[in-house]
Amino acid sequence: MSQLPTKKCCRAVDGGNGNLQLRRGAEEQEPRADSPNPNDFIRSAELVLPWLASSELAYVSLTCKALHRAAKSLTLRRSLDASRGFEKFPVPFVNSVDDLPYAYFLYGPSQLLHSLDRQPWGSVSPHSAVTNSHMADAASGDVRVGCDCERCGGGGSSCPCLSLEGLDGVATECGPSCGCESECGNRITQSGVSVKLKIARVRGKGWGLFADQLIRERQFVCEYAGELLTTKEAQRRQQEYDRLSSTGHFSSALLVVREHLPSGKACLRLNIDATRVGNVARFINHSCDGGNLSTVLMRSTGALLPRLCFFASRNIARDEELSFSYGETRPRPDSESRPCFCFCGASSCSGTLPSEHT
Ligand SMILES: C[S@@+](CC[C@H](N)C(=O)[O-])C[C@H]1O[C@@H](n2cnc3c(N)ncnc32)[C@H](O)[C@@H]1O
C-alpha cells in the first residue's frame, strides 16, 4: 500500500485546560499567517459532525481530544431527541441496560415515496398539472372529491370525510383535495406524533417505545413512517435483513400491510421500511397478546395511498411500553434460519417473533 508523504504542520490539541492549542512541528518555530485557527476548527467540526452516522462519529472522535469532546456533546444532544425537532415534543433515549446512547437512523415524519424524480408527461396543456379532484370536477360536471365544510372536526360534525368506525380497520380523514386547511379537526393523524414519548432500552428486545404521559384509549399516537417500497425491493431487502439479523446485532423495521376485501383476497399491499429512514414508530416492539396499540389504515381524501396509524387500544399509563402484534407466528420455511426469540412477556407469548416472508 502506498503512503502519503507526511508534512510537519500545526495540529489542534487540547492543552489540558479545555482550550484548544496549536502544537507546532519541530521545524516550525514562528506562527504563520495561514496557521489554522482553533476556533475555525471547532466551528467546522460543529458544522460537519452532525452529518455523520454514529459509527463515523465514533471513528472521528478518536482522532484528537477536541473532536472527542465535540462528538461527546453531539452524542448527548442526539440522545435528547430522536425526532431531530421534527415532532411537537422531543423524544429522548433512555438507557439503563447498556451503554448505547442512541440508535442512528434518518428521520422522516411521514411515509416517503422511494423515488420522487418524476414529472408529468402527456398533459393536455402545460398548465394541466392539477389535482385529482380538479380532474374529477372536469370529468363529471359538479362532482367534488373532497369536502367543503366550514368546520370539519368536533362533535356533531357531518363532514363526509370523517369515519373512524372502530379501531383495527380502515378510516378516512380530510386530505389534499378538501377545501379545509391543515388545522382542520378532521386531520388528527396528519401533524405528527401527538403525545409525549421516550425510547428506552429493554433487555432482550433492543430499543422500545414508551409512553411519557398518560395516553387515553382511542387517542392517536403516531404513524408508521418509512420508505414505501415495491414488493420486489421489499423482498430483496428482507433477504438482506434476515442475513444481517443472523449476526444478532441488527434489527430491521420492514412492515408489510395488506388490506383485504370482504372475500378475503388482498387488494392492497404496502411495504413500509423504517430501517434506514423512519419515525419513532420504528421502535415499537411486538407483543403476542396484541399489545396496547391498534392499527388503522388511514385514507386522506384525495391522497393516493393510505398511511398506517397507531391509536391507543386502552388507557396507557406513563412509562408503559407501547406494543402491537406484528402478525401471526408461522414456522419459517427455511429451517436453517435462526428463529428470533420473543421477549414480550405476555402470558400468551409463543416464544418466537412473527416472521414476514414477503
Ligand atoms: C421494528 S423493530 C423494533 C425496535 C427494535 N427493538 C430496535 O431496537 O430498533 C423490530 C425488531 O425489534 C426486535 N423485537 C421486537 N419485538 C420483540 C420482542 N417481543 N421480543 C424480542 N425482540 C423484539 C426484533 O429484533 C425485531 O426484528
Count of beta strands:
16
Helix content: 10-25%
Mean pLDDT: 79
Structure classification: alpha/beta
Main pleated-sheet profile: 5 strands, mixed
Q: State the helix count.
A: 5
Distance between the termini: 44 Å
Shape: globular
Estimate the strand proportion. 15-25%
Indicate the CATH topology of the largest domain.
Beta-clip-like
Small-molecule binders: S-adenosylmethionine
What would CATH call the class of the largest domain? Mainly Beta
CATH superfamily of the largest domain: SET domain
Number of individual domains = 2
CATH second-level architecture of the largest domain: Beta Complex
| SSE run | EEHHHEEEHEEEEEHEEEEEE
Contiguous low-pLDDT stretches (5 residues minimum) are 1-29, 116-143
Instruction: Give me the Rg, rounded.
Output: 26 Å
Overview of the molecule:
With 358 residues, the chain is of the alpha/beta class. The chain folds into two domains: 11-25 and 36-80, no CATH class; 93-115 and 134-324, Beta-clip-like. Helices cover 16% and strands 22% of the residues. The chain has helices at 38-48, 54-60, 65-80, 132-139, 231-245, and strands at 11-14, 20-23, 93-94, 106-107, 112-113, 169-173, 197-202, 206-211, 220-223, 226-229, 254-260, 266-278, 285-286, 293-300, 307-312, 323-324. The strands form five sheets. Strands 4, 5, 10, 11 and 12 form a five-stranded mixed β-sheet that branches. The chain has a four-stranded mixed β-sheet with strand order 6-14-15-9, with no helix packed on it. Helix 2 (54-60) packs antiparallel against helix 3 (65-80). The radius of gyration is 26 Å and the shape is globular. The relative contact order is 0.12. S-adenosylmethionine binds at residues 103, 204-208, 251-253, 282-283, 285-286, 340, 342-344, 353. Residues 195-327 form the SET domain. Residues 20-39 are annotated as: Disordered. It holds the Pfam family SET. Residues 342-354 form the Post-SET domain.
